[in-house]
């Protein structure tokens, strides 16, 4: 259910930007979401459809681009990808060290808005 407040926030940001450029329509919104978030794309689109009804964004699509999770080893500085299953025990593939710094995987951002100006 956390998709609803997230989608409302995205919608508000998109509408502010669209209004600032005098858009007459919105065709698509592109989001970058880190794989460590548990968002279900179908729910995001469903909530978007509901929230955008009667606005210039009605009928627009939400495209999600997933960002892989990467960690930098705290010992040898090797950067490596991890998934949700290995996040509880991410060991460096080079040296086996068990601690590192998360570099990516928690992103939540708008990376594109396809607008219409007529």
Summarize the main sheet. Answer: 3 strands, mixed
The dominant shape is: elongated
The fraction of residues in strands falls at 25-35%
* Helix-residue proportion: 25-40%
In the predicted model, the low-confidence regions spanning at least 5 consecutive residues are none
Order of helices and strands: HEHEEEEE
Question: What is the CATH C-level name?
Answer: Alpha Beta
Strand order of the largest sheet: 2-1-6
Query: For the residues shown, what is the average pLDDT?
Result: 92
Descriptive overview:
By secondary structure, this protein is an alpha+beta fold. It has a single domain (about 5-115), classed as hypothetical protein PF0899 fold (2-Layer Sandwich), CATH 3.30.2320. The protein has helices at about 5-20, 40-50; strands spanning about 25-35, 60-65, 70-75, 80, 100-105, 110-115. The strands form 2 sheets. The protein has a 3-stranded mixed beta sheet, with helices on one face. Strands 4-3-5 form a 3-stranded antiparallel beta sheet, with no helix packed on it. The longest helix has 18 residues, at about 5-20. The chain is elongated. The model has no long low-confidence stretch (mean pLDDT about 90).
Q: Can I get a quick summary?
A:
The protein has 118 residues and is an alpha+beta fold. It contains two helices and six strands.
List the helices and strands and how they pair.
Layout: H1 3-20, E1 25-34, H2 41-52, E2 61-67, E3 69-73, E4 79-82, E5 100-104, E6 108-116
Helix pairs in contact: 1-2
List keywords for this structure.
118 residues; hypothetical protein PF0899 fold; three-stranded mixed sheet; elongated; 2 helices; three-stranded antiparallel sheet; 6 strands; alpha+beta
């Amino acid at each position: 259910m956390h998709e609803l407040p997230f989608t409302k926030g995205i919608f508000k940001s998109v509408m502010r930007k669209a209004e600032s450029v005098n858009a007459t329509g919105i065709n698509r919104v592109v989001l970058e979401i880190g794989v460590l978030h548990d968002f279900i794309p179908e729910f995001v689109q469903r909530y978007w459809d509901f929230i955008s009804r009667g606005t210039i964004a009605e009928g627009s699509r939400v495209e999600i681009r997933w960002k892989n999770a990467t960690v930098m080893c705290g010992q040898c500085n090797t950067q490596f990808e991890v998934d949700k299953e290995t996040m509880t025990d991410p060991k460096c593939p080079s040296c086996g060290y068990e601690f590192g710094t998360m570099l990516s995987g928690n992103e939540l951002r708008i990376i594109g808005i396809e607008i219409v100006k007529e």
